[in-house]
Amino acid sequence: MLSPSARPDDPAVVLRSSPRPHAGAAPIVLKVVIAGGFGAGKTTAVGAVSEITPLSTEEYLTEASADVDSLEGVEAKQTTTVAFDFGRLSLPDAPLPLELFLFGMPGQDRFVDLWYDLSRGAVGAVVLVDTRRLESSFVPVSFFEDIGLPFVVAINQFDGAHRYQPEQVRTALELSPSVPVVTCDARDSNQVVGVLLTLVDHASTSRLDRTPATDLQEA
Fold it and tell me: What distance lies between CA 215 and its chain's CA centroid?
C-alpha cells in the first residue's frame, strides 16, 4: 500500500489527469474507506467484493459492551469490528484500470481517533446506512463533511427493513445535493462494486474546499 506521503495532495487528481491507458497498463491504486454505524454492514461489504481473504478484526460482543453497543434493531448481531477490515478489489475493465484497497472502519464513534488514521490517503468513503437505525449515520456523515473527504451514501437494504427512497434519506440526513445517494445489498458483490465505482466517479469530479484528507492532523 502506498503511504500517504507518496500520494498527491488530492488522490482524485490522479483520475482527472490520467491519460487513457494502453493495453496492459498498470492499474491506478486507490484507498477507499467504508464507514457507517454499528451493524450497518461494513464487514459484509468488504467481504462481498474482496478478491483476497479479508483481514477482519471482529470480536464477539459481551455483556460488558451492552451499555455502549445497543443491539436494538440488530438483535442477531454477535460480533463487532474493533480495529478495521481490509480487502482488495481489482477492476481491470473499468474506464481506467483500478486496484482498490478497502478499509472497513469500526462503526462506534468512540473509535473516532482511528477514523482519522484510516482516512489518511483515501480517495473517498462509502457511508453505509441502515434505515432501521438511521441516527447512527449522522456521526460518520458529519465526520467526512468536516475533514473534506468525498463520500457517497449507500442505503443497505436489509431484509425486512422498510424501503425508503434515496431522496428521503438525503433529506433525513441533511445531505448536500452533490452527495450521491444509492441503494445496495451489501451481500451482493455486483451491487457493492457499483457503489465503489460511484464513489470513484464522484471523487474524480469533486473540488474540495476543505483540508484534504492526506493532511489530517493527529486527533
Answer: 19
pLDDT digits (tens, 9 = 90+) for 202-216: 999 885 444 444 444
For 201, the grid coordinates are 466517479
Report if pTM > 0.90. no
- CA 53 to CA 86: how far, in whole Å? 9
- Range list of β-strands (E), 46-198: 58-60, 79-81, 85-91, 98-104, 122-129, 151-156, 181-184
The one-character DSSP state at 84 is -
* CA triple 58-63-69, angle to 5 deg: 60
Cell of 129: 446506512
Buried b (16+ CB within 10 A) or exposed e, 190-214: ebbbebbebbbbbbbebeeeeebbb
Per-residue burial over 102-136, b = 16 or more CB atoms within 10 Å of its CB, e = otherwise: bbbbbbbeebeeebbebbbbbbbbbbbbbbbbeeb
Do 121 and 214 form a contact (C-beta atoms < 8 A)? yes
